[in-house]
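pasting 2,3-diaminopropionate biosynthesis protein SbnB for the record, 342 residues
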Amino acid sequence: MRILNRDDVDAALSDREPAVLEAVRTAYLLHGRGRSRVPFSGFLRPPEPAGSRIISLPAYLGGPEPVMGMKWISSFPGNVDEGLQRASSIQVLNDLRTGYPIALLESSRISASRTAASAALASAALHGTRAVRTAGLIGCGTINQRVLAFLVRTHPELEAVLLTDAVPERAEVLAAELRRLHPAIAFRTGDAAAALGARTVSVATTDSGYWLDLAAFPHRPDGQVILHLSLRDLDTKSVLSARNVVDDVEHAVRERTSLHMAEQEVGNRDFVHAEIAAVLDGSVPPDPGGTTVFSPFGLGILDLAVAQEVLAYATRAGLGTEVAGFAPGSHRVTSAMTEKPA
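structre below
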């Protein structure tokens, strides 16, 4: 089994946003054609620390190069106050014939990158031919940092980014870093109203309190796209008044997401207009007016697609470590029965 640690994965992802975007796009399209298996994620919520959880995401992705495995990702929001990353993750890939594990990857950056790539793809698809010169980032953690790295690929015309965070200093720190990485773009910090004045707004916070009422910001631009990545920020009124696009209806409308709460309020899912695969393949055109909200639950097939890309690159580049002893070995009885006589 090949083991890729954090540094190996970082090297395999460095400056490879186009490859990640293509892997995520392909995964969505295959999923839309029914060429995947995505069981519901499993949630483990320990009694302490409050608000913490670990999620399992098993999946199978078909296509020309099928892959299967599972991501095991923790989210401990209290880590941030100690200067640690909120999320940690590992990804296992399994052999398609035997089921044996063939690779183990440190996958926190894979997870953040697939989330960010899915957001940037959705922004481009949902805006269609409209130029996106302004973006807003609500929440200034790792996810939105990665979102910006992909937005500059899908919207090369981007000119200004507005950042806000519950802790203003975080917004200032991220803005300074992004100015260094993207000197041609203007980065400004402010409040939520400023960020919500942008054409595309990415919402990635640790707040699960359905706090964001879009109607309280009437000067938002027509045709705005909200990338609702943290899933539990919007209130139900905002969900029900928007055009909603998801990655998978069955997954996105559960686990007390904002869409789940809206379903409980109205008793149906008619407010969900499309899945992103139908927008990407052109079956559902972008809506030029109103507000479109993209709420991706985060499908395990995206982790598989990006992990497979990382593993292929790492293998070519000689990254990682091959470790023996992770296969269970031969079966004592049947192995003898299948031996061919001399």
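The CA atoms of residues 10 and 109 lie 7 Å apart.
The chain has two domains: 2-110+300-329, 127-295.
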